[in-house]
Predict the 3D structure of the following.
Amino acid sequence: MTDTPPLDPTDAFAELGRIKLSETDIDGVLTTIAGLARRTVPGADEVSVTLIRGTGAYTAAFTGDLALTLDDCQYEQGEGPCLEASVSGASLSLPDMTSETRWPRWTTCAVDAGVHSSLSIGLPIHETVSGAMNIYATKPGSFDQDAIILAQTFAGYAAVALANAHLYDVTATLAQHLQAAMASRAVIEQAKGIVMGERRCTAEEAFRILSRLSQDTNRKLRDVAELLVDRAQQTPRS
């Protein structure tokens, strides 16, 4: 744990809104969320973000090894507040680990590690991904009702940032695919023109020739077209 100055919630929310998605990725957004939550929620000593894809849970971001240890203990046991909050989307407060009865094996692990209270807030992330923000404290009773409400509000802003990051990632990937498709079409059209000039054939006949060559050589049509274009560019003109 490191000493960092507390952050006003308004400033934290504003910082979440200022994340430049063109300069980071979803992992970077998650790391920012964990760091801001640790500085914003009163009583927080360490923070992590759990993600569940399919049946597998993992810690996508954490502010210290203590949080990672507590998360891993839950994953190994297959139960605990971060897993339940991830699945249900609920907020789960454990004010005193020594009197908690819902997950006795995990609370024993937590107390042994020096953690005596925690707060897990479900994060709506994506249709195929669920998650939770986990806040750990070394003292019992660290999170009063105001802290819980603030953590829930923070999680709402964090969910928006994650949704924007996911949308940006999907849009960027689609743009790359479209760009690649356009490039493929352009080189194929160039190759068709070369074949039409050499064979004195129509565009349809040129495309059939390229397709047959692709099948005979077991190469993608774009690769065949690129080879043909490269050969034409390297052939000296008489």
About this structure: The chain has two domains: 9-171, 173-234. The longest strand covers residues 117-126.
